[in-house]
Amino acid sequence: MSGLSARVRVARDRFTLDVAVEVAAGEVVAVLGPNGSGKSTLLDVLAGLLLPDHGRVTVDDRVLTDTATGVRLPPARRGVGLLAQDALLFPHLTALANVAFGPRATGARRGRADEVARHWLAEVGAAEFADRKPAALSGGQAQRVALARALAAEPGLLLLDEPFAALDVDATPVLRGVVRRVLAATGRTALLVTHDPLDALALADRVLVLTDGRVVEDGPTRAVLSRPRTAFTARVAGLNLVSGTGDPAGLRTPDGTLVAAAAGPPGEPAVAVFRPADVAVYTSPAQGSPRNVFAAVVAALEPHGDTVRVRAAATPGGPAWVTGLAADLTPAAVADLALEPGTPVHLSVKAAAVAVHPAGTAAAG
Question: What processes in GO biological process is this protein linked to (predicted)?
């Protein structure tokens, strides 16, 4: 089996999706990107809900869409399963009947379809809900049933569209664990659309980042999230990112400021990346060992686990690239410094804590 191969172009009004996506058999790929980047359009094309202007989609060497030859299999015949953020279960059917619907639709007799449905309900930990209707299920329970329904049809490709977004904080990690276990056990080829880096880290072998309808980053999950090359990915990963040009001493910003670090690619577009935890905040210029020191003002104070995330903004007339930089401080440090929105500060980060990488194609996005 060869997994998913898709090359599609969709032009709608002022937006164009133009991507090539390859997912190996048994691989899970997370698709990240800001709102309007083309994630939903891509899933609609793969699911057969949208015909691309140009393109070809194959799953396990089976052609699902080919605009050149006029092939367009309807959604029910594509062998593509979908788990969305809303379970979308049939309200008049029991959980068992919902899961059995897929096998029945492909010709299985009722007894065999029910047998398959009970197997998948057990696999996702929902066997006890077999006789309940959707109205009697919690959000997490309904998503388990929806996952079982998607898998019962034995799809060649599983599409996971923000599957945990509508769940509460207690149900999310439990269902994420269920999905991880089932994907590993079945070797299912899957595409996961998410905004949560935990979903990508827990479930995906690879991450693909879309911006303005184009792929701007693609690589192993931990590599992409630890070495982001676009502003969006840095925000998702919780990292600071400064765009500029590689310099033998680090990175040079558009206004000429040097961000000291290990040598960047000389003269090439590059990004400097560093953790909020590595940023110190002072209300007067920092003293001591050589550091990068940037003047800023406090834009916001945000609870962030056991710390407070200090968001920065540019000083009046200062460089705009400082806006959005973050530092993680203890609540005691915030109180000692008397920080509040509008407080002038100096952000300091050691050169050893800054990594410089070649920029993605949308580093400033």
Answer: molybdate ion transport
